[in-house]
Amino acid sequence: MSTDSPHPDALSYDTQAVQVGIPRGNTLGVGIPIHQIAAFQFETLQDGATEFVTNATYSYARLQNPTVQALEERLTALEGGTATVALSSGQAATFTAILSVCRAGDHVVATSSLFGGSAGLLNNILPLMGITSTIVPNTPEAVQAAMQPGTRLVWAETIGNPAADIADIGAYARIAHEHGALLGIDNTWGGVGFLCRPLTHGADIVTHSLTKWAGGHGTVLGGSVTVGTHHDLSRNAIYTDGDPSLLTTRGPAALAWRQRWFGAHQLGMTLSAHSAFLIAQGLETLSLRLTRESQTALDLAQYLSAHDAVTGVAYPGLPASPHHALAQQYLHGGYGAVLTFEVPDPAPFLAALRVIRMAPNLGDTRTLVVHPWTTTHSRMPEPARRAAGVTPHTIRMSVGVEDASDLKRDLDQALQAGRAHATPHEAALI
Ligand SMILES: *Cc1c(COP(=O)(O)O)cnc(C)c1O
């Protein structure tokens, strides 16, 4: 099946989101079909032998499946990249991205406002393989100071979790490239190239938890790794060692090849066809959802900033935010759906919510809150939690597509309930 799109480069984001991955032709459906199939046929011995060398089409669905491939083409177009491998979760994508450029003895510099699972990989899993890391504040000066001769990768998130700080992607790219390293950006909060396209600012690798805004309805897990056009691997021994070297045999496709080889072929963190279908469908309305969610998030950030039962609000769309200037530089179409705020006594506030639900997810159509101190960030040592912008009073809210005035009313009545219960003693126990 050919999934070539007619003129992907000539089309805008919104058009690509609904068109890429769907071939035209008589008898073809208007949409991406689910190929619920594990293996693909060979007509001749030669066909099988050729496919096992080239992996050009399909043999076995751990390697490639037409539904997953259609999703990958759509993701590549929306991020402005050259190739994508879709995987079973965002966590699988981060692991694959790091392993694609690091091996034993290599080093990663990552910025501190990290998704908890990424910090876990860097602190607990990668050291088992001899890959070390330094986690630094989210500034070019701190990243520059942490670079070592063995640093192969700089890692940051477009919008930090949950402090809502913005990575200076252009500056990080320059620092990484000066040291012969690559820049990887977890662009989950950047909404698959809609709010931010890190590859256009110099990043080499972009990852996603497709579980969030891409799937968009809180119904599916997935992840992806997309590579850009230019990436210099001439100082990375993974690609230059050996005769012939990976760079010689695979050329400019070497990085994308290794990501598929590791993530899907070898480690088997493959995305299922059904999940790929759901995520491809989610992408079709991502820009509509994220536009609406960003507008509501800004509205709620302003509302909460003025509320006397709220002691602080972090949202990059607020002109008072210390990250507003970088947000204006790197984000377009909105400032994102996530805002963070501080309340004196979170327990009664959270228990009083009637519309907004408490659950550890992001990018759902429904507004979700979480108490990071006791959930998403609870395994981090206390100083690291505070460095990431998390206190016992922090609430993280991922805004959905509900009516903004319903959300305001719900927040207000819960904040009143929280105030009624708050005593200095209870607040201290949190
Ligand atoms: C959720 C998330 C991940 C991990 O993705 P999963 O799909 O849960 O494995 C990684 N990075 C960010 C920024 C996330 O929000």
In CATH terms, the superfamily of the largest domain is Type I PLP-dependent aspartate aminotransferase-like (Major domain)
Largest sheet report: 7 strands, mixed
Shape: globular
Oligomer: single chain
Note the run of SSEs as H and E: HHHEHEHEHEHEEEHHHHHEHEHEEHEHH
Portion in beta strands? 5-15%
Order of strands across the biggest sheet? 1-7-6-5-4-2-3
| Overall residue-averaged pLDDT value | 94
Bound molecules: pyridoxal-5'-phosphate
The termini sit apart by 57 Å
Task: Output the CATH class name of the largest domain.
Answer: Alpha Beta
Helical content stands at 25-40%
Helix and strand arrangement:
Elements: H1 13-19, H2 45-54, H3 66-79, E1 83-87, H4 90-101, E2 107-111, H5 116-125, E3 132-136, H6 140-146, E4 151-157, H7 169-178, E5 182-186, E6 205-209, E7 223-227, H8 237-240, H9 246-250, H10 254-266, H11 273-284, H12 286-305, E8 312-314, H13 324-330, E9 338-342, H14 346-352, E10 357-358, E11 368-370, H15 382-387, E12 394-398, H16 404-421, H17 424-429
Parallel strand pairs: 2-3, 2-4, 4-5, 5-6, 10-11
Antiparallel strand pairs: 1-7, 6-7, 8-9, 9-12, 11-12
Helix pairs in contact: 1-3, 3-11, 4-10, 14-16
Pyridoxal-5'-phosphate binds at residues 89-91, 115, 117-118, 157, 161, 186, 188-189, 209, 211-212, 221, 223, 362.
How does this structure look, described?
It is a single chain. By secondary structure, the chain is of the alpha/beta class. It has 2 domains: 11-283, Aspartate Aminotransferase, domain 2, CATH 3.40.640.10; 287-429, Aspartate Aminotransferase, domain 1. It is 39% helix and 13% strand. The protein is built from 17 helices and 12 strands. The chain has helices spanning 13-19, 45-54, 66-79, 90-101, 116-125, 140-146, 169-178, 237-240, 246-250, 254-266, 273-284, 286-305, 324-330, 346-352, 382-387, 404-421, 424-429, and strands at residues 83-87, 107-111, 132-136, 151-157, 182-186, 205-209, 223-227, 312-314, 338-342, 357-358, 368-370, 394-398. The strands form 2 sheets. The protein has a 7-stranded mixed β-sheet, sandwiched between helices. A 5-stranded mixed β-sheet has the order 8-9-12-11-10, with helices on one face. α4 packs across α10. The protein starts with 12 loop residues before the first helix and ends with a helix. Mean pLDDT is 94; it is low at 425-430. Bound molecules: pyridoxal-5'-phosphate (PLP). The site of pyridoxal-5'-phosphate has 17 residues, from α4 and α5.
